[in-house]
Amino acid sequence: MRNLFIFSLVIGLTTAGAAAAQDKKPQPLPPDVNPVSLTRLPPLTRNDLNDEGKAVYDKIVGPGPALTSGPVALSLYSPKIAQVFSDLNGFLRYNGD
After folding, report:
1. Which of 1, 14, 23, 77 is deepest in the core (most CB within 10 A)?
2. pTM across the whole model
């Protein structure tokens, strides 16, 4: 009986939350927020970087689509940091315990 009550409560809250989310209109972005990156920094392209940055960009992004948002895209503003993040991610993903 208790499980049924909890299940009903969760379903009710989920349904109410979904209905409330549909009723809300998206708020416009502040004028200083880039609509693509959703940050105050515009997304970088490979051509925006110097030679060191291009080498790091090629290693991280490769032939894939350009990164427009997220921590990796922002880390490319500092290629040395982007390289460290990439190395750490690779280690944790493939060599971590």
Report:
1. 77
2. 0.62
Place of tokens 């110097």: 50
Report the C-alpha gap between 16 and 25 in whole angstroms.
16
Q: Which of the 8 DSSP states describes residue 5?
A: H
CA atoms within 13 A on the CB side of 66: 11
Distance CA 11, CA 26 (A): 25
Amino acid of residue 17 = G
Question: Do the Cβ atoms of 83 and 56 come closer than 8 Å?
Answer: yes
Determine the distance from the C-alpha atom of residue 20 to the mean position of all C-alpha atoms in its chain, rounded to a whole number: 25
18-62 pLDDT tens trace: 555 566 788 898 988 888 888 888 888 899 999 999 999 999 988
- Type of residue found at 56: V
